Hints:
The protein is α+β, with helices and mostly antiparallel strands.
Amino acid sequence: MSLKDLPEVPESVSRAAAVVAALDRCFLVGFGRLGPEQAQALQALGRICSATPLAESVGAAVEALTRNEFVERHFAALAAARAAVQGAQYDALRAHAAKALGRAVSSSGSASSETTAVPEPVKVWQESTRHWLMELAIAGFGQLEPQALAPFGATLEQLQGEPSATRLAALLTGFQQELLRSMPISALPHIPLFRWADLWTRAMVGALRPPPAVAGTKASGALSPLGLDLRQHGFFVSADLYGLFEEGKSARLVRVTLSSYKVDVVRGGELWRCFGPRAEPLLRALARHEALKVKNATLLPTGDLLWDGEAKAGTAFSWTDAAKRLAPGAEDGLATPLAAPVDRHPVQLAEPVFLENFAASEDDGWRLDLGDGVALGVATKRIGQASELRPEHLKKAASLFGLLRFDGGAWSVQPLAVSRPGQKPAEAFTGSGACDAPPAKKKATLGVLRERASRLLRKKS
């Protein structure tokens, strides 16, 4: 198998996508007004789960929902089943991509984990979240009104203040705000049904219990940052940094995640300040193409490196030479990060890859012609507005390091860094401005917000 075979989507993935799409129409019309077509979609989901551990709970849920019996546990079963189908799609697509790239298929990431104790107040907020999500599903996305969304703000505020619930709170914050901005629904040219059903599913699963604490091992070695994927919505920002981690004679690609709450007015280059001083060595190493000497950081089975150890600046390195170890057919066979079982969804596919000898064109959307009849789209929507890398940089690029993505039923490449021989600067990449001098204190948005908050607190005291 080669890159020629990559665009061919496995038939099992397409069949599963059809089942999910039919189920999502139930969320559009609302479970309070299901018709024969929606009942058939629920029954199809039940058949898919019939030979799985979810068979009993999903079967009971399908029967109850088709007779308008609305109980929280049935909606939870529905969310678990939908997430499980998408998890199976993720596994199939990742195996397909690995074969096309000439890599071994890694199945790590499901190591034993510790049960996380949930504080009693969080249990109450989780229950409130599940009830709110159930109400949205009964009403249907096509019939949502502001009065059904705004009251959840009180619960959401409590979740935002609880560190153990950050993951769920960040998702719900973006979801609620997106729904509120979409009012009135009737005025929307197109309802993003698949996206909203995804967010609903992930929120419901997350509100059942927090993700288990995965056991990791302490690791020390050299980390060479290769590229960074920056994501944000109005109230949260997250960055995944991919780097080559060499520990003794062994090497693998790891992912370091940085996350922070923010406010909507913090944008552009100021996003880097949200991650705080602890992230500065990592971002500086990325911006300057310097390796880091890492000591006693936690390495998870998924390939995620927790930023909880010590880091010291090392020597400069060539990111193109390091990234070539991730070219299709490379002999090194580096292990690459994968999503934890609870996160497996086609949209989470992010297979690191190094490409060269391509031609970029903008006709009917950006595309990369890799030669030999192979062409892949460029995932331009995944390149954030705060990224220093723009699609135009691909036109004169000699090589790129990026992520192989799967969106809308097709494969594409999200560039994180490109080399540009003969040009200054010689590289363009997300995070190149992370170490630029911050704005003057009087002009910095974060500085102004902190000063006002401090002044407000002094007045209250």
